[in-house]
Amino acid sequence: MISLDRLNEVDRPEFVALLGEIYEHSPWVAEAAFQRRPFATRDALRDVMNDVVSQADPERQLALLRAHPELAGRAAIRGELTTHSADEQGASGLLNCSPEELKRIQELNQAYGEKFKFPFVIAVKGMDRSAIIASLEKRLGNPREEEKLEALRQVSRIAGFRLEASIGS
Asked: What is its EC number (predicted)?
């Protein structure tokens, strides 16, 4: 865990190295947030990073969504998740699915990806497999633009949890 004071003092490369994976495979968010230092609170940092994403052009937002791995997907099975994603999916039980659960999640992931052209993104903290599956089933019924906004809200929640775990208040 790094202190907010230290984060406010480091140079750009170290800042990006420390926060570059808060948004999955998207260090551009930390890069842009660096310019708005110093941050008085962890919440202020979170808000700035969220602003960076919300002000990004639609293609960059879509790239951010596409940077997220499928839940219990190929990357998880091969052990290729980022540390953050592995911890999050593991804590929710997604890395220990029964064969039936895994088959259902993979079917839903495929249907979701075909419909929306980005992977299902949800902040899994505090959720179990059945709640995640139910949410995926429900959100499959959303219109594309509504779902893109919901996925971006979930990315924001994930980033908030990651900042909470990484940055001292």
From this structure: 4.1.1.97
